[in-house]
Amino acid sequence: MANYYSDHPELKFHLDNPLMKRIVELKERDYTESEKFEDAPVDYEDAIENYDRLLQITGDVAANIIAANAESVDLEGPHLENGRMIYASKTVENMEAATKAGLWGLDMPRRYGGLNIPMTTFSMLSEVISAADASFQNIWSLQSCIDTLYEFGSEEQRQKYIPRVCAGETMSMDLTEPDAGSDLQRVMLKATFDEKENCWRLNGVKRFITNGDSDIHLVLARSEEGTKDGRGLSMFIYDKREGGVDVRHIEHKLGIHGSPTCELTYKNAKAELCGSTRLGLIKYVMALMNGARLGIAAQSVGVEQEAYNEALAYAKERAQFGTKIVDMPAVYDMISRMKAKLDAGRSLLYQTSRYVDIYKALEDIQRDRKLTAEERDELKKYSRLADAFTPMAKGMNSEYANQNAYDAISVHGGSGFIMEYKSQRLFRDARIFSIYEGTTQLQVVAAIRYITNGTYVNIIKEMLENEVSENLQGLKERTAQMLEKLETAIATVKEHANQDVQDFLGRRLYNMTGDIIMSLLILSDATKAPELFEKSANVYVRMAEEEVNGHASYIAAFRPEDLEYFKAREAAAE
Question: Is 284 helix (H, G, I), strand (E, B) or coil?
Answer without folding.
Answer: helix
